[in-house]
Design goal:
322 residues, Quinone Oxidoreductase, Chain A, domain 1, Rossmann fold
């Protein structure tokens, strides 16, 4: 089979296409024939060594496909089942060995490519809006990078829960996507300071929560638009990691809260993962959640997919197709 391998940290050119033996399932594993693998920023961090990995490794943390083979102690699945997964390294490959307890069933009403597109970003949007800061009617939130994969889904879920949504984007095309997803206020951060824009739109410190997947470029200004005891949720670092924070800054800005959630703590059990994907798949099947697959590449062109992602040339979800 073909797979993508990284033998040394580096740029997109570090993603090499290799021919390798088909995997065999260890106890508790299932072999899946890949339909699509999701491309995410964390893949680029692992590729370049920001998140160190044992080398060589095959990137990719999510995907969807069809069960080919079942290992011992991997109960609950049958050959031919349509499945998806997340937090399983090695997904940039035509066949993937997945821990059985990381799989979820994909209903026939949801295309496998769509399922692959929501396993990391959709689950992230779900836990951010329902648990990290549980949005409710009347809440005001800011979602950075509103035309990205998480952003477009988080806008829609936030609106489902009755929130007023502010979002930031960098182009007019991206502004149109965010508005179509339901954002109430779309701010072009390439044209004006986002914190000033929020203040002009809604007054001094109007927000209950900021969802920040950008990091270094936005964190400090995000604190200035939160109301007393507001929450800044830092869930990514597309612009680089946030430097260490002096907690007195939180006090000076109104006894603020900040948190750095990671997915593993929000899908700590198979039941918790399934409860989130059941919501997502039911909303997709009912036409209540629009999943935008903005661009696809063949598996062999993973390097080009990474280049586009890092150059901010993508919208919605980026997939690799087997």
């Amino acid at each position: 089979m073909k797979a993508i391998s990284v033998s040394a940290p580096g740029g997109p050119e570090a993603l090499a296409v290799v021919e390798t033996a088909n995997p065999t399932p260890a106890p508790g594993e299932v072999i899946v024939e890949l339909a699509a693998a999701g491309v995410n920023y964390i893949d680029t961090y692992q590729r370049e060594g920001l998140y160190p990995m044992a080398l060589p490794f095959t990137p990719g943390l999510e995907g969807a496909g069809t069960v080919l083979e079942i290992g011992e102690q991997a109960s609950g699945w049958a050959v031919g089942d349509r499945v998806a997964w997340t937090t399983q390294i090695g997904s940039y490959a035509q066949r993937v060995a997945v821990a059985a307890d990381k799989l979820v069933a994909v209903p026939g009403s949801v295309p496998l490519e769509t399922a692959a597109a929501v396993m990391l970003q959709g689950v992230t949007a779900h836990y951010l809006a329902t648990d990290t800061y549980p949005l409710g009617g009347g809440d005001r939130c800011l979602i950075h990078a509103g035309a990205g994969g998480v952003g477009l889904l988080l806008i829609q879920i936030a609106k489902r829960r009755g929130a007023e949504v502010f979002t930031t984007v960098s182009t007019q095309d991206k502004a149109a996507l965010a508005a179509a997803a339901g954002a109430d206020h779309v701010i072009r951060y390439d044209q004006r300071d986002f914190a000033d824009a929020v203040t002009e739109l809604a007054g001094d410190r109007p927000l209950h929560v900021v969802y920040d997947g950008v990091g270094a470029a936005t964190f400090d200004r995000g604190l200035t638009v939160l109301r007393r005891r507001g929450t800044l949720v830092l869930f990514g670092q597309a612009s680089g990691p946030v430097p260490p924070v002096n907690l007195q800054v939180l006090a000076a800005n109104g006894s603020l809260f900040t948190t750095r959630p990671t997915m593993g703590d929000y899908i700590a059990t198979p039941a918790e993962l399934t409860s989130r994907t059941d919501d997502l798949f039911s909303w997709i099947a009912a036409g209540e959640l629009d999943v935008r697959v903005g661009q696809t590449w063949p598996l062999e062109e993973a390097g080009d997919a990474h280049r586009a992602l890092e150059a901010r040339l993508t919208t919605g979800k980026t997939l690799l197709l087997a």
